[in-house]
Amino acid sequence: MTSFSELLSIFALAFVLGALLPFAVRPILHRYNMVDVPNERSSHTAPTYRGMGLATAAATFVAFVAATLFGWTYRSAESLQLAVTIAAAILCALALGWLEDIRGVSIVRRAGLQLVIGVLVSVSFATVQGTNILLLILGAIFVAGYINVANFMDGINGISGAHGLVAGLAYALTGWMVDLPWLAFAGWGGVGAACLRRSCRGMCALVRTCFWAMRVLMFWARRWARWLWARGLRMFRSCWLLLR
């Protein structure tokens, strides 16, 4: 059974990398002017950097490779092959996404490359687990489709981060419960990398909401203070006239 301390260490590594890597990626995006200006089809309302997902994917990849180098993601030669396959798939998907962001890739070529990644992952898993050809085909289509769906969600504010948290936790818990360390560490690394991305956006929204609420509160507080001051002055003048 994978120890909790090992999982926590990889989570902490992915979390720290997820926090620091955006500061290294942002100057690159600014240099190449990789900015999406919103239009009528956009889901965001302000100019947004395109390619910041590189930081999250790189944090997940480095954390998973570190866990593999420590020998935490495998129990045998077969599970080591699966761990290497997962690392290679993350790296290939990262490279394809970055290439699409920086240069642009046609729909047909992108779908073909995603399918190639899916085929390589499915073949590697099939050789270890001895699955039939039908499951191999379905696995290849699933991996390619999943990459494409995740790539689409990355353009919608908050959804990709929330997806990383939910899916990563599902993989991490499943891998821990059935004693598949490569699955547990892959999921936990994804959770750590996506956690800060989601929490930062959530905290920014919370700060903006609190600031707006404080402005409304101060506005009404000033109005009530002025009203009470005016009423108090009138009562004081009335009492003063009566006493005289």
Short structural description:
The protein is mainly α and 244 residues long. 81% of the residues lie in helices and 2% in strands. It contains seven helices and two strands.
Q: Could you please describe the fold and organization of this structure?
A:
The chain is mainly α. Helix content is 81%, strand content 2%. The protein contains 7 helices and 2 strands; from the N terminus they run H-E-E-H-H-H-H-H-H. Strands 1-2 form a two-stranded antiparallel ribbon. Helix 2 crosses helix 7. The longest helix is centred in the last third of the chain and has 63 residues. The chain is elongated, with a radius of gyration of 26 Å. It starts with a helix and ends with a helix. About 4% of the residues have low confidence.
Shape: elongated
The proportion of strand residues reads under 5%
Between the first and last Cα atoms, what is the distance in angstroms? 90 Å
- Extract low-pLDDT stretches: 198-207
Largest sheet: 2 strands, antiparallel
Instruction: Tally the beta strands.
Output: 2
In the sheet with the most strands, the strands line up as: 1-2
Q: How would you classify the quaternary structure?
A: single chain
Cα radius of gyration in angstroms? 26 Å
Please, how many helices?
7
Indicate the percent of residues in helices. over 70%
The assigned structural class equals mainly alpha
Mean pLDDT: 77
| SSE topology string | HEEHHHHHH
